[in-house]
Each structure stands twice: as structure tokens, then as C-alpha cells.
Write a structure and sequence with these properties.
Elements: H1 6-76, H2 87-104, E1 108-120, E2 123-135, H3 136-147, E3 154-162, E4 177-189
Antiparallel strand pairs: 1-2, 2-4, 3-4
């Protein structure tokens, strides 16, 4: 047997231990690199899948925009809505409609106050508050004419008062006048975005 001096044996043991330490460290680093790149690979796969989903949604956009345009056209052509190009025109149309109905029912519009338009779910609420006088016998016909009108009109906040002296003057008054204050509302398509 060959005798190896103790100093060589100690150096070779130290070198072997150092080599093992380097190998273990290299394996740990390689394992960490594989884990990091493996995680990135999964993230990349998820990203590619999400990109495909987004591209499919983008491809549907023209079809959805066409459907939205059709829905808006259909909504704007609803027969019960006030058809006008602006709020001011809608308010003027509502005033003309109500004045005509009141006059047809032997009433008199004393004042008309425009209420600012409000937006509700793509529609503009057009409202005007009126003070008017109408014969008692014609009130029912007046309300019926307003609420069965196209475009659809709605009576809101109504206060109806009989004149104070209608019962005291003539025992059988022909047709006492009523003082009416109410708000009439109609709806206009605003073309909400």
C-alpha cells in the first residue's frame, strides 16, 4: 500500500469537502432558478390566456356597438316620449300641449313655470308647474285628456281648491270654477351614453 502523507490527506479532504459544498450550493442555485423560471412560465401562460380573452372581447366590440346603436334608436322612437332635439324644445312642446288641452276643456292657464329637466336612466324628465282655472264639470275631462295623451303626460303634485264663495252666492251655481295648481311631467330620450 502506498503511504499518503497526512498533509496531503488533509488537503484532499478539505478539497473534497469544498467541492461538495460548491456542488450543493450550485444545486441549490440551480433549483431556485428552475423554480423562478417555472413560476414565470406559469405567469406567462396565464398572461397569454388573458390576452386571448381580451382579444376576443375586442373583436366583439363592433357587434356590441351596433346592437347598442339599435337599442338607442329603438328607445328614442318610443311612442310615449316627447320627440324633440333639445330640452328647450321639449319644454315648449309640453307647454303648447297642456295649454291646448286646458283651452279645449274651457279652462284658462294663468301661469306656467318651467321646472329644470332632470336625467333618470337615459331619460330627461320635462316638467312644468301650472296654475289654472277650470270649471268643476270639466276637471275630470281635463285630467283624462292629459293622462291619455300621446306623448304620455303625467299629473303630479296637484292642489285643487274651490272658490270660497261658490256655495254662498247662488244656491245652484251653474259651474263653479276650480283653482288648480299641478305639475305636468313628460319624458324625453336623452340618448344616454
Amino acid at each position: 500500500m502506498i503511504a499518503i502523507p497526512q498533509s496531503v490527506r488533509g488537503r484532499s479532504g478539505a478539497l473534497a469537502a469544498a467541492g461538495i459544498a460548491i456542488a450543493v450550493t450550485a444545486l441549490l442555485i440551480a433549483g431556485l432558478i428552475v423554480l423562478v423560471f417555472g413560476g414565470q412560465s406559469a405567469a406567462t401562460t396565464d398572461s397569454v390566456h388573458q390576452l386571448a380573452v381580451y382579444r376576443a372581447e375586442v373583436a366583439l366590440r363592433p357587434e356590441l356597438e351596433a346592437a347598442l346603436k339599435q337599442a338607442r334608436l329603438k328607445a328614442s322612437a318610443t311612442p310615449g316620449l316627447i320627440a324633440s332635439d333639445s330640452v328647450a324644445l321639449a319644454q315648449a312642446q309640453l307647454q303648447d300641449e297642456v295649454k291646448s288641452i286646458v283651452t279645449d276643456n274651457q279652462g284658462e292657464v294663468r301661469t306656467a313655470q318651467i321646472v329644470p329637466a332632470t336625467n333618470v336612466d337615459g331619460f330627461q324628465v320635462i316638467a312644468i308647474q301650472y296654475d289654472l282655472a277650470v270649471p268643476m264639470a270639466k276637471l275630470r275631462d281635463l285630467i283624462y285628456a292629459i293622462e291619455t295623451r300621446t306623448p304620455y303626460l303625467f299629473v303630479d303634485d296637484a292642489d285643487i281648491v274651490a272658490q270660497q264663495d261658490w256655495q254662498t252666492g247662488d244656491p245652484q251655481p251653474a259651474n263653479p270654477q276650480l283653482e288648480v295648481r299641478w305639475t305636468i311631467r313628460g319624458y324625453r330620450w336623452s340618448g344616454a351614453k
